[in-house]
């Protein structure tokens, strides 16, 4: 499974591609940050994010895109930029028919470190260890994007089984019986 992880942001949008399957060593195929100038007009910044993500999709051809689910923050301006960059990432994937999964920050931290309250340094250290890298990816947005991809690879099999069970239950329920 090849996953593009996207840590959305308007100034720095982390991107990372990981390949592998749950239970086996994972491989990093690329990591980086799509940057936009803080003083540029919003529309131009969103286009720059789109172009950056499209370039990553072209180069790495992921099967899935994992995006951090936007959560409530105290700074409304920051959460708006994050939500806008997140929407751009989802749009780019949807345009190509690539499934998108949203993962909360605590889900990602728990999947990668074992604790949903881990700090950025702990996430970076575990990403470095799990992908057998020489050093943690910089900036933290890049490491977070890799963590999102790792989280998706590890969580996808269980989520798929759950979705299949729900679909099977729904199919039986519409026929007037339960499994």
Question: What is the number of helical segments per DSSP (H or I, 4+ residues)?
Answer: 5
| Largest β-sheet summary | 5 strands, mixed
Mind telling me the C-alpha Rg? 17 Å
Average pLDDT rating: 91
Spatial sequence of strands, sheet with the most strands: 3-2-1-4-5
Structural class: alpha/beta
Beta-strand share of residues: 15-25%
How does the overall form come out from the CA principal axes? globular
Strand segment count: 5
Question: What would you say this structure looks like, in words?
Answer:
This protein is α/β, with parallel strands linked by helices and 179 residues long. The chain is built from 5 helices and 5 strands, in the order βββαβαβααα. The chain has a 5-stranded mixed beta sheet. Strand 1 and strand 2 (12-19) form a beta hairpin. The longest helix is centred in the last third of the chain and has 35 residues, at 140-174. The radius of gyration is 17 Å and the shape is globular. It starts with a strand and ends in a 5-residue tail after the last helix. The relative contact order is 0.19.
List keywords for this structure.
179 residues, globular, 5 strands, 53% helix, alpha/beta, 5-stranded mixed sheet
Compact summary:
The chain is of the alpha/beta class and 179 residues long.
Task: Outline the fold blueprint.
Layout: E1 2-7, E2 12-19, E3 27-35, H1 42-60, E4 64-68, H2 76-95, E5 100-103, H3 105-113, H4 120-130, H5 140-174
Parallel strand pairs: 1-4, 4-5
Antiparallel strand pairs: 1-2, 2-3
């Amino acid at each position: 499974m090849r996953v593009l992880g996207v840590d959305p942001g308007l100034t720095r949008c982390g991107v990372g591609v990981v390949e592998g399957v749950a239970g086996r060593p994972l491989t990093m195929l690329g990591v980086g940050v799509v940057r936009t100038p803080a003083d540029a007009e919003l529309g131009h910044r969103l286009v720059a994010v789109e172009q950056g993500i499209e370039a990553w999709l072209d180069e790495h051809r992921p099967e899935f895109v994992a995006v951090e689910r936007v959560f409530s923050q105290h700074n409304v301006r920051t959460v708006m930029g994050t939500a806008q960059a997140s929407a751009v990432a989802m749009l780019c994937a949807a345009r190509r028919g690539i499934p998108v999964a949203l993962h909360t920050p605590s889900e990602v931290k728990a999947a990668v470190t074992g604790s949903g309250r881990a700090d950025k340094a702990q996430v970076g250290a575990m990403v470095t260890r799990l992908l057998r890298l020489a050093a943690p990816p910089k900036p933290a947005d890049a490491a977070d994007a890799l963590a999102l991809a790792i989280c998706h690879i590890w969580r996808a099999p269980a989520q798929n089984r759950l979705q299949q069970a729900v679909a099977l239950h729904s199919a039986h329920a519409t026929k007037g019986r339960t499994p």
